[in-house]
Design brief:
Number of helices: 7
Shape: flat
Low-confidence stretches: none
Helix content: over 70%
Number of strands: 0
Strand content: under 5%
Mean pLDDT: 85
Distance between the termini: 20 Å
Length: about 150
């Protein structure tokens, strides 16, 4: 894949992460916004919003460095994808733990909200998984010289 495609991917994913991070932070701060955004699977969580911002910033810096043809710019892209997948996996584990807890120890008093189960950190990680499928061989080849 060309560098141009990686730059576009990095800008797009970085923008999405920053957008969803901003919306999560605003929904926790602005009264009444949480109810509106919960319909779009965006929970009100300040900490998760900041995590999304950090991941988005890594992608955007990577896009800027790749566009400027600075050596090591692709490293930001790969680190962003690793962070995205790692936090997505953590959220998947959290979702499974809550499900098992409800299944075995829930007495019907706990309610699940779809916006709290499928958070942006979980479904935005799909983009990074696709990126690793496309660019994974090059990434592994750069780490392990043959």
């Amino acid at each position: 894949m060309s560098t141009v495609q990686k730059v576009i991917f990095s800008w797009l994913v970085g923008f999405l992460y920053c957008l969803f991070g901003t919306l999560q932070i605003l929904s926790a701060i602005v009264p009444g916004l949480s109810g509106i955004l919960s319909h779009y699977l965006i929970p009100s969580d300040i900490v998760s919003g900041f995590v999304l911002w950090v991941i988005g910033a890594v992608f955007i810096v990577g896009a800027q460095e790749m566009h400027a043809k600075i050596a090591g710019g692709e490293a930001y892209l790969y680190v962003g994808m690793l962070l995205s997948i790692a936090f997505g996996f953590i959220m998947l584990l959290d979702l499974g733990a809550v499900g098992i807890d409800t299944l075995f120890f829930g007495e019907g008093t706990t309610t699940w909200s779809v916006s709290q189960m499928f958070v942006p950190m979980l479904y935005l990680a799909v983009f990074s998984l696709i990126g690793f499928v496309v660019w994974g061989r090059g990434f592994i080849a750069d780490i392990i010289p043959t």
